Amino acid sequence: MHNTISQRHALPGSSLKGVVRATAGLLLGTDNPVVAEVFGSSRQPCPWHWSSPVPRAHEPDEQPAWYPAMPSARVRIDRETHTAVEDMLVIAEQTGAESATFTVTQTARIDDLAKHQDVLVVAAQATRSLGSLRRRGLGWVGIACTSHEPDEDTVRRFLQLKQP
Length: 164
Description:
three-stranded mixed beta sheet; alpha+beta; CRISPR type III-associated protein domain-containing protein; 4 helices
């Protein structure tokens, strides 16, 4: 498999949504109906639009941009033979930015907006990595919500949504 980075959308909003959804599923339970309610499913569309992240400039005269794409490779090793598994080589490009911003915008009617906001904020801030090489120290991230600061009550409400 060979993956290249789109210069237009280095990190699509749909991929970012998927990573945050995976975190919500890990914390609340993958089959928890709240996860489908907030992030969408095959039966119901997501009531939120996730924009693609855009790198931020840190100096007044700096042009914000993603770091140049760098090649990377990954291979799956067989646990018993300690050799490469046939057809399991991935060659891809990787990029990053010091920081980037994105927006999550409501696109449909939501009955319990506070519940959705709790899930989005807590799951986003609990997300610590993204990308295919995130287990190797690459892709570590921190996501901060600029419009809803989570507090102890937010986390408590979020945890009450957890299913065994």
